[in-house]
Amino acid sequence: MGKPEEMWQCQMSNCGFIYSPDRGDKKGKIPPGTPFKALPAEWKCPCCGAGEKMFRPLGSPGA
Length: 63
Ligand SMILES: [Zn+2]
Description:
By secondary structure, the chain is an all-beta fold.
C-alpha cells in the first residue's frame, strides 16, 4: 500500500483523480512503482489533462 504522502490528487474541481505510485498511469505509459516526483515534466492528469502543478499530496492537508 502506498503512503498518503506518496499519493497525489488532482485539484481540479471537476476531477479529483488520485495518482498512486503503486499503480502508475497506464494511459500515460507510466509503469507501476513510479513516484509522482519522477513523472516526466510533460505528464498530465489522465482524467482532465491538468499539469503536475495542479496536484497536491494527499499527505499534506490544506498546505
Ligand atoms: Zn485531473
